[in-house]
Amino acid sequence: MTARKRSVLEAFSRDFFSLERRDPVIRPGGGSEERRRVYLDTTATALMPRAVWRGLEAYLEAAPANSHTDAHRAGRDTTRAIEDSRDAVGRLVGYDPARDVVLFTANGATGAINFLARALFPPEIRPLVKRFRDGAPPAVVSAFKEALGGAGAEAMEAMFSRPLVVTTHMEHHSNLLPWVEAVGRHNVRDVGVDPDSGALDLEALARILEEDGHRVRLVAITGVSNVTGVVNPVRKIARMAHEVGAEILVDGAQWVPHAPVAIRTDRAAEDIDYLVLSGHKMYAPGSRGALIGSLSTLEGRRCVTDIGGGMVDYVSMEDFELKDEVTAREEAGTPNIPGSIAMGLVAELLMNVGMQAVADKEEALTQALLRELEAVPGVEIYASTDMKQVPRAGVVAFNVAGLPHGLVAAYLNDCHNIAVRNGCFCAQPYVQALLRVDRAQLEACADERAQGRAAETPGMVRASLGVYSTRDDVDAFVAAVRELAADPDAARAAYQADPEGGFRRVDGARLPTTFGIADAAASALR
After folding, report:
1. What are phi and psi of 150, to 5 degrees?
2. How far apart are CA 339 and CA 174, in angstroms?
3. Among the four residues 2, 15, 217, 284, which has the most C-beta atoms within 10 Å?
4. Structural domains of the chain in order of their starting residue, each with its CATH number
5. Mean pLDDT computed over 452-480
6. How many CB atoms lie within 10 A of CB 211?
7. More confident site: 221 or 458
8. Cβ neighbours around 318 below 10 Å, total
């Protein structure tokens, strides 16, 4: 890394909201003090750079208007800002503007994946695929084709010829449940994981594609696990999918903010057909999502999502005519303008900083975190810690012997002002595999929850890094875990579980809230 790149990276890394915030904590032996907040929950939501706030402020000063009008300057500038953001996001992930589309969606990567599921497997046709395991009766198929006509009939043919989706035990629920809902559980093929290394079983994937590849429409995988940070061999999996005529979707929510990504390469067999990402995972505020890729499946189609607003060329009381351009047709209504612009600003910032520089910094910090945490007696880290054998991003899932995961998270927050997350992280099959939870244990857990003992549900604690994370953060975190692991009985005695699975101090001590809407509004008007 050049001196200039290092300087740019460090300046960017330190210019985030909340990094130097200090809050009161409750010390284990009693009493209180203030400590700097250590934010290790980036995988859930990343902090925001002040540069994005400054960029949004500049936009709001200059062009606070609705988009898609030529009538006045502010409207034109808003439209241009959205389109520039679309292009910036595309360039960040190496898209080809001649053939790829960047479609903004609601609700982060979840919204983007659900959009693609509806595009590939239209809801009006799904009942035929989901109900009839061996294919719907010819008479039913013929009647549906005649009713749908045109592009609808083509979509139906595609669904019947390739009704299968391959996904994995590693996926966030957002890259699992939409496919089960789209084609039915019997049409989903799932790839398991090695519970020791945390990596995908690529031999199982190869077997599935060898046996059923001619019927597979899509292979849906994550680029980086949100639980362990394990990095999947995306290029290899893309080749495997394309060899059998399937397409590949990569959930890039945890990949794009932390490493160089290119959906197009000089080897077409390794290209990514569809990539989804989430704004709030990549340092942009809010929950804007994006779907990037060749959306030829939408050409000539009726609308996949909402109807209304300016996504039409003509409307009468008898009929309406949709616009041909995919982004105009599929982003109906007033868009989330600040969310879209923020994503574009972040994309430009990350490209200026350099994603390889980001990846190098986070890799070194992740290695230090793994090395230090492994040395703490009583700590179990999940997935391989050998980053040469099993590459991983800055995510570490662990447990402390003898302590529920919820208690560990509560202790780190209350006593040290360290923000981590616990539970199953919306990836229950993967967590269950890593913990080696069998069906009998799952049924027992369901009974425990039904009886108000959610705290006993198996799970983990997760610490996750971002571009703003430092060695001081790692040292403070490891020291706190070491303190806890050295005297777990004292922590158990200080906390009690509540029915929802959280933990509260027995002495009733509670930390003050850090923000309230009413107070903030009143303060702003003073």
Report:
1. 45, -125
2. 20
3. 284
4. 3-47+354-518 (3.90.1150.10), 81-121+163-351 (3.40.640.10)
5. 91
6. 11
7. 221
8. 5
Q: What is the CA radius of gyration of the chain?
A: 25
Joined together, the tokens standing for residue 314 give 């003509």
CA angle, 316 as apex, 314 and 321 as ends, to 5°? 35
Q: Please report, for residues 49, 88, 352, 480, 483, the alpha-carbon distance to residue 342 in angstroms, rounded to integers and kept in the order given.
A: 10, 11, 15, 35, 40
Question: Can you tell me which residue has the tokens 């503007």?
Answer: 97
d(CA 414, CA 31): 12
Q: Which residues contact 73 (CB under 8 A, 6 or more apart)?
A: 63
- Measure Cα distances from 514 to 18, 511, 517, 520 in Å: 11, 9, 11, 10
Query: In Å, what is the CA distance from 302 to each residue of 6, 111, 307, 329, 486?
Result: 49, 19, 10, 9, 62
Residue-wise pLDDT for 13-72, tens only, equals 999 999 999 999 998 777 778 999 999 999 999 999 999 999 999 999 998 888 888 889
* Residue range 306-365, pLDDT digits in tens: 878 777 777 788 888 877 788 877 787 888 999 999 999 999 999 999 999 999 999 999
Q: Is residue 231 a contact partner of residue 199, using CB atoms and an 8 Å limit?
A: no
Separation between Cα atoms, residue 486 and residue 400, nearest integer Å: 10
Query: Which of 398, 416, 412, 408 shows the shortest CA–CA distance to 488?
Result: 408
Going by their DSSP bridges, the two strands 395-400 and 32-36 should be labelled as unpaired
**Mean pLDDT (whole number) for 392-408:** 97
The residue to which tokens 């403070």 are assigned: 476
Cα maximum dimension of the chain: 76
Cite the beta strand spans of 171-325 per DSSP E: 188-191, 216-222, 247-251, 274-278, 289-293, 312-315, 320-322
Predicted pLDDT at 5: 82
Return the pLDDT at 357: 96
Q: Which helix (H) or strand (E) holds 412?
A: helix 405-416
H or E element in which residue 371 lies:
helix 355-374
pLDDT tens for each residue of 165-214: 999 999 999 999 999 999 999 999 999 999 999 999 999 999 999 999 99
CA-to-CA distance for 437 and 47, rounded, in angstroms?
Answer: 33
Query: What pTM value is reported for the model?
Result: 0.93
Q: What is the pLDDT averaged over residues 298-302? A: 69
What is d(CA 517, CA 456) in angstroms, rounded to the nearest whole number?
34
Is the confidence at residue 452, as pLDDT, over 70?
no
Q: How many CA atoms lie within 13 A of 435 on its CB side?
A: 23
Q: What does the buried/exposed string (b/e) look like for 447-482 if buried means 16 or more CB atoms within 10 Å of the residue's CB?
A: eebeeeebbebbbbbbbbbbbbbeeebbebbbebbb
CB 115 within 8 A of CB 289: no
- For residue 16, the cross-strand partners are 49
